[in-house]
Amino acid sequence: MQWKQFRYRLEWLGVKGLVSVIPRLPRRACAMLAKGVGTLAFALDGRGRTITLANIEAALGDQYSAEERRRIGRASYQYFARTMLDLFWAPGLTRPGGEKYVDVRGLENLEALRGKPTVILVAHYAGFEWASIGCGLHGFTGYTLTQAFKNPQLDKLFTDLRSCTGQQIITQDMSMLRMLRYVVKGNIVGLLIDLNLSPTQAATVIDTFGMKMCATYLHAILAQRTGARLVPMTSEPLPDGTCRVVVHPPLDIPEGSSGQQIAQITWDFFEKRIREKPELWMWMYKHWRFRPKGDTHPYPFYAHESGKFQRLMRSLAEKSGAVRR
Asked: 174 burial class (0-12, 13-18, 19+ CB within 10 angstroms)?
């Protein structure tokens, strides 16, 4: 216990130091530092590199050579480092002239929904931390769902960073009920759609890169129960230190769609963008923890068969069949 508290304190001091130092860097220097840090992390993080390359091979193996997959994996590390360093730099966006570093396009799509139930959807795409922060600079604030840290001392530091332009941060504790309440009142809420969940959680099964993913469908529940429009956002950090954020038009969800169908429509939107620029996605995450029994697709090495996953798939298939009948 004493060692854990000591380690937590060291982690807090390290992050606190970055929060103090990074905003002092010029934007180009921040971009160059992220590239160096990402390159070093890819070289040193053997376990994460193995997961990254296994994911890319399973998802895109027929499109890229082994050398190209390593390039994508290294770039993914670089972009993830950039995303985190940009989050530490985020308070600089609130200084005079700071808003020029985040170019938010498509704000008319949010303006058309102002005061109406709206759910912003993002994936673990490079620059996603600046997506909601950038919208806040233009007066579009709301509630952003995040995961709590195992080290509780880090929560306040990251909450302060993510809320520097007026966003309100909530964690997953009682998140569904809280977000339902916020959306019904016409607030904007934002969440990640590519979180891999246990089959016993609020999860559904969707097709991703030819594989089954046990993913969240909280956004689908919000849309079904409140009539909220689902608005995707993508982002891309640029070499000059700026970040381009795009607010896309609301997704077209056919009336009567099931939660699984809504989650699939949402994912299909993002998969198309990931295929176009695969280096922007966070490949070091274990996206495919479960594999269906008997599936011949070459899943990543860490994927395993699960009775709970099989039961979830069977339940979803039965519900789908009942709807068709």
From this structure: exposed
The amino acid present at 279, given as its one-letter code, is E
Decide if 248 contacts 175 (C-beta within 8 A): no
| Total count of domains within the chain | 1
- Residue in 147, 131, 132, 124 with CA at minimum distance from that of residue 76: 124
- Of the CA atoms within 13 Å of residue 292, those in its CB half-sphere come to 15
Query: What tokens does 316 get?
Result: 């979803």
pLDDT, tens digit, for every residue of 123-158? 999 999 999 999 999 999 999 988 877 888 888 899
Q: Which domain holds residue 203?
A: 2-324
Phi, psi of 150 (to 5 degrees): -60, -35
> In 3-state terms, what secondary structure has residue 116?
coil
Sequence-distant (≥ 6) Cβ neighbours of residue 154 within 8 angstroms:
11, 12, 15
Confirm whether pTM is higher than 0.90.
Answer: yes
Do 289 and 303 contact (CB within 8 A), yes or no? Answer: yes
How long, in residues, is the chain? Answer: 325
